[in-house]
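[09:14] KT: can someone run the structure on this one? pasting the chain below
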Amino acid sequence: MRKLTVFLVLLLSIMLLVSAGCGGKKVTVRTEEGKVEYSEESGKVKVKTEEGEATYGQEDVSEEDLGVPIYPGAKLVKGGGGSVKTKTEEGEGEFMTAAFTTSDSIDEVSEWYRSKLSGKPKFMDLSSTMAGKKTGMFMFQEGTAAKTVVISAGEGEQEGATVISISSGATTP
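[09:31] RB: done, structure tokens below
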């Protein structure tokens, strides 16, 4: 599994290069452990090793995909939705993530998610304030899927906005 993690880091590096305009129709990187492929046509990156394979692709995501409600009026960050699918001898897994922005405050967004999610199985509210910065963080589980919502102040291009990061991951044996 360690090698697969190394390849996922490679995968993200290739995605950054491609999104910066350095990619072609198809890029393949081969190493002793396996290979990483990027196809511009499908927008997918495929990592194959002797331990298994993972596929990453940027996409629009919905509440149904994530299994988590999306804050009313929140806008998907461009390129902010993606998924990773893995397949190993131990089973298959899928991880989806999406980032949204809103002009509403962290407190407003956190309270909305707290009210929507607090009844979910294994719900945890890990919200905190550190160095004067508020962060909302909620986790719960549905079946084999772990769900996380993080609400924080935007930085860089999102400065002045509240950023909502939603992730969902599940594995099946």
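[09:33] KT: thanks! The chain has two domains: 1-53, 59-173.
[09:34] RB: yep, looked fine to me
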